[in-house]
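ugh ok fine here u go
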Amino acid sequence: MLVLTCVMERVEINTGEVITTNVPFRSKTEIIIEEDDVNEFYKNAVDKIEESIANFQMQGSNWKFKGLLS
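structure:
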């Protein structure tokens, strides 16, 4: 499993308040048996994390990627 913890930020439209939150985005857990499976695992993990970030941004207005924690 890969975990990418991002700092996400948005500005509250009504008040102008800046809201910041740390969000862990995770890939699926997979067992890698062959060395050749690493590249496929990595590609799948990146795809899953990108999808999770897009879904998070759609949950509330104006969520933007601010930085990376880990």
